[in-house]
Amino acid sequence: MQEHSNMNPKWWISLLVFLGIVTLLQMVYAGVIRPNAEIALAASGTAGLSSVYVILKDVEQQFCLSLMVFCLFLMGYKLWKLLGAQDIYTYDFLEDFDKNTVLDTEQALQQLEASAYAETPAMATWINCLRRYKNTRNVQHAADTITASIDTLAVQLESGNNMIKYIIWAIPSIGFVGTVRGIGQALTQADQALAGDISGMTASLGVAFNSTLVALLISLILMLVMHVVNNRQDMMLIKTQESCEKNLLSHLHN
């Protein structure tokens, strides 16, 4: 149940995707962004500091963009899994059994465990509930198992989001690293600025401010998408519990 409840791609797929993203962004930076940034600075001087290419040219921004694309991949994968299985969460897996007769729990368990959806969170909750009912023959105990399974599923979903949360936290930190680096470079050029040449200090301060600007904008975008993912996960939990209480318990009360 854990792989499906976390809804994360396998680790080696994530690693390959991350390496592919880093490689692709490096090619874009080497072939497009940095050459155009140099052209903008050479043509316009300090006026070129407002160019998009100049704002994005530094290594901190490159790393932040790489992490952003990777994070969007992880969240997109989760949304794809959630949207692709949303009908399952409201489905009566025991519709072939007559609700007016006593449920054959052994046969019902065999049918659920043999299903193609056996490892989905919704089906796993049904199986746990039926197993508890089979052992105790107590509907209240089965209902308690639904609540416990939903709580466990919620913890697993939250745990599955840890990598995404870390990336969203790390991106502004990387931006602040660029800020510190840029300010440090600017301070080393203070003598030149006092002598009348402020171009070096201006470029260094541009590194400082641009890295923070890009990192914060990326964080805002990722937090919005993360909110959508969390909302979908919460809806999955609610629908799974409603499905169990509405459909499964109605089979057990007879």
UniProtKB/TrEMBL annotation:
The transmembrane segments are 12-33, 39-56, 63-80, 207-229
Q: Which domain of life is it from?
A: Bacteria
Describe its membrane topology.
Multi-pass membrane protein
GO BP annotation list: protein import
Q: What is its main location?
A: membrane
Every MotA/TolQ/ExbB proton channel domain range: 134-236
GO cellular component, alphabetical, reads: plasma membrane
Query: Keywords of this protein's UniProt record, alphabetized?
Result: Cell membrane, Membrane, Protein transport, Transmembrane, Transmembrane helix, Transport
Q: Which cellular compartments is it found in?
A: Cell membrane; Membrane
Family the UniProt entry places it in? Belongs to the exbB/tolQ family.
PANTHER family cross-referenced by the UniProt entry:
MOTA_TOLQ_EXBB PROTON CHANNEL DOMAIN-CONTAINING PROTEIN, PROTEIN TOLQ
Q: What is this protein called?
A: MotA/TolQ/ExbB proton channel family protein
Per the UniProt entry, what species is this protein from, by scientific name? Answer: Opacimonas viscosa
